[in-house]
Amino acid sequence: MAAVVLWHFPISHFNEKARWALDWKKISHRRQVLALDYLPRALWATGRPTLPILFLDGTAIGDSTRIIEALERFQPDPPLYPSSAPERRRALELEDFFDEELGAPLRTAMLGPLFTSDPDAVVEVLGASMSSVVRRAMRAMFPAFRAFYTQRHKINAATMATAPAQVAAALDRLAAELRPSGYLVGDGFSVADLTAAALFSPLVMPPEFPYPPAMPPPQSLVDLRDSFASHRGFAWVSEMYRRHRGRSAEVSAAAAAPPP
Q: Is the separation of the CB atoms in 81 and 87 below 8 Å?
């Protein structure tokens, strides 16, 4: 069988979702950090300009939701999809909610202020676990990189103004959906819990997050984090990481060669 390989960005919450699923299922895999060349390589692999991309059984799979779906077929145990049909539907609905309603607003709330005031912090945050050569290139071409990134992810004055309230609404939804078990669906950890916790991870930055930035967080991120730190949902994210993030199933710390 061909090696399982994940192309990823270390700091990205959608990439963390895919990494956690692989680690949860203890699927041995190699990871390759893509940098400034990710766009053409992603388009070549899947026809989509996004990461993560998982190479599984000779097939390139883009999008974290599709990756988890494929992993459930590839290795059903331990499961991320609940066994009962109603609970599975509910888990998938919540996965979709956090993907669609939290992913972009949290990115905007965290990075928007940095793009306008602290280019060095942007490079350190987005360049986490990338080489110093890549980070220097990002800094040297920062005006072009900023224009590309903010346009691509719709980071502008209007979205920056609404993003914190959208993050707060997602935390409120999380807290409202918690069952007596402490999980979002049923009595155990599912794709709903994994998605919500992974999507909030750059904000909460629990100790178990595998790729923390090397530098202390800039003040705007500290202030954003502090504004939500007393929320029940914030503490829940830390608890999910403590209970369930577990050990990495990556088989080598070295960058994996791209599949043929």
A: no
Indicate whether 30 and 142 sit together in one domain: no
Query: Beta strand 30-33 with 53-56: parallel, antiparallel or unpaired?
Result: unpaired
Predicted TM-score (pTM) of this structure: 0.93
Per-residue pLDDT tens for 11-54? 999 999 999 999 999 999 999 998 888 889 999 999 999 999 99
How many structural domains are present in the chain? Answer: 2
252: three-class secondary structure by DSSP: coil
For 160, the token pair is 């920056």
Residue 197 near residue 190 (C-beta atoms within 8 A) = no
Tell me if 10 sits within 8 A of 34, measured CB to CB: no
Q: State the Cα angle at 100 between 17 and 52, rounded to 5°.
A: 35
Per-residue pLDDT averaged across 170-195, rounded? Answer: 98
pLDDT at 1: 60
Q: Is residue 251 part of a domain?
A: no
pLDDT in tens, 106-140: 999 999 999 999 999 999 888 877 888 888 999 99
Whether 51 and 97 share a structural domain = no
